[in-house]
Amino acid sequence: MAWTKYQLFLAGLMLVTGSINTLSAKWADNFVAQGCGGSKEHSFQHPFLQAVGMFLGEFSCLAAFYLLRCRAARHPDSSMDPQQPFNPLLFLPPALCDMTGTSIMYVALNMTSASSFQMLRGAVIIFTGLFSVAFLGRRLALSQWLGILATIAGLVVVGLADLLSKHDDQHKLSEVITGDLLIIMAQIIVSIQMVLEEKFVYKHNVHPLRAVGTEGLFGFVILSLLLVPMYYIPASSFSGNPRGTLEDALDAFCQVGRKPLIALALLGNISSIAFFNFAGISVTKELSATTRMVLDSLRTIVIWALSLALGWEAFHALQILGFFILLTGTALYNGLHRPLLTRLSRGRPPAEEGEHERLLGASRTAINDAS
């Protein structure tokens, strides 16, 4: 069945905004400007402040939810209301996981390339699968176990490509290795978030936009308050500001004032995460969770191609191999091979009606994505 113009628009919106989300964050990291008090020029390395902006983008999904709710008042839509009462504090544990994982990933993005960052986020499949077996009592199919093994192999190849690539003064080998490990560590936390969301949140049939927006509210408020103690906590080599503290929000605002293009990059990051979440949820509703996973994989190609075109990283052939192995792992885990096998065996496209979001498909990407 051919896609409608609206469905094509949603697919394009998800692909574009998902790519902008990672690229705008990396663009901000590449800026160099003076900070407060006449300090010398230095890179814009403010991962926790960027994470606050990301949560602000998620928080804006609440506005979209209430707009849809007003529309549903005129055209009743049962999906806009939970089937049973729920406590908003249920969102707090996954929001804390989201806050921690996202902050770690922003730190890692300062240390490695945008394409490797996006590819290594595929590690979420490994830990989500294992945690779903341990805590949700799921039984994984053989194809899902093969998908996990393929993902592990793909991560090894991508990591090897980073080790063999040429590194400049901005990304030294030790920093790249640390960044890659931090990304994988963050995926463990993101996997815990996904399991918590499925176990405690989505069983209440909470609308996804409301779930994203509420978690964004918690993350925005908590992380904004944490910026105050972070201003005084020493961070040695992990700090990118002249004061050597965990985060210096004042220094960030001074750099933005001296180079306004940084504000444009931050705005792109904030707005893209909001539209990406909305588009992702809409794609799942209008098309399928499988389509959403395919589009999410395609944005890795877009990010990689643009990073090469902009000169942000050097080409390495191993990344191609690593990407295709990771793509195979994602396809196997999420059952993307089944429609193809059905088409080949029956000679007609399989029905996708009633396809629901899987554990991975139900979540968003923090710089996402997360997902």
Automatic annotation (TrEMBL):
The chain crosses the membrane at residues 48-68, 89-108, 120-138, 145-164, 176-196, 216-233, 261-281, 293-312, 318-336. Residues 1-18 form the signal peptide. It is a multi-pass membrane protein. One of its GO terms (biological process) is negative regulation of mitochondrial outer membrane permeabilization involved in apoptotic signaling pathway. The keyword RNA-binding does not apply. It comes from the Eukaryota. One of its GO terms (cellular component) is cytosol. Keywords: Membrane, Mitochondrion, Signal, Transmembrane, Transmembrane helix, Transport. The keyword Transcription regulation does not apply. InterPro entries: EmrE-like, SLC35_F1/F2/F6, UCP036436. Its main location: membrane. GO terms for molecular function: transmembrane transporter activity. It is found in: Membrane; Mitochondrion. Belongs to the SLC35F solute transporter family. May play a role as a nucleotide-sugar transporter. This is Solute carrier family 35 member F6. It comes from Pteropus vampyrus (Large flying fox).
